Amino acid sequence: MKDNNLDTKILISQEIISKRINEIANKIAFDYQGKNVILLMVMKGSFIFMSDLIRALWISGLKNCKLDFVNISSYGDKVESSRNPQIKLSGDIDYLNKNILIVEDIVDSGHTIMILKDKLLKSLPSSLRVVSLLSKPARREVDVEIEYLGFEIKNVWVEGYGLDTDNKGRGRPDIIELNN
């Protein structure tokens, strides 16, 4: 497929994404049965994943979820992580003794999740876990645990389903591999 003079290849179709999100939601709902959960969405890339995940959680029986948002910038207009992410929590919710589930679109080097988790642990939550749609273990520079993972992918640049290139391509329903 050709798109804007870039070679693209569908890496994960929207049908496969949807099926996997339902599987993850069932596991999360089971693990948090009878508990309240704060879903902390990492902006901006995980907004589509979060939207589908929270509906799947509802259907799976986990209805006691609050939403919060964190703005993190580690790429800017680059394709390489700065390894020094800027983190802005909304400040609307107290995390003390709460179950926090970080909702991330992709874990690459691991720096962003590590720094965010370290910051959140200072709030003394009851639990702190990560759900990520994608993981690129070949790029990992720090060891981070992803308790709920959608897909492990190879070291390629991806776009679609909320993931972007310089804030473009987020609306694609599939995840594509993009080669310049």
Question: What CATH architecture would you give?
Answer: 3-Layer(aba) Sandwich
Biggest sheet architecture: 6 strands, mixed
> How many structural units, i.e. domains?
1
Percent in strands: 25-35%
User: What share of the residues lie within helices?
Assistant: 10-25%
Number of helices: 3
Q: Which radius of gyration do the C-alpha atoms yield?
A: 16 Å
Oligomer: single chain
CATH class: Alpha Beta
Write out the strand line-up for the largest beta sheet, numbering strands in chain order: 5-4-3-6-7-8
- Main structural class: alpha/beta
Q: Name the average pLDDT.
A: 90
Secondary-structure element order, as H and E? EEHEHEEEHEEEE
The beta-strand count equals 10
CATH topology: Rossmann fold
Low-confidence stretches: none
CA distance, first residue to last residue: 13 Å
**What is the overall shape?**
globular
Structure commentary:
The protein has 180 residues and is an alpha/beta fold. The chain has a single domain, classed as Rossmann fold (3-Layer(aba) Sandwich), CATH 3.40.50.2020. The chain is 23% helix and 33% strand. Strands 5-4-3-6-7-8 form a 6-stranded mixed sheet, with helices on both faces. The longest helix is centred in the first third of the chain and has 18 residues. The radius of gyration is 16 Å and the shape is globular. 32% of the residues are buried. The mean pLDDT is 90.
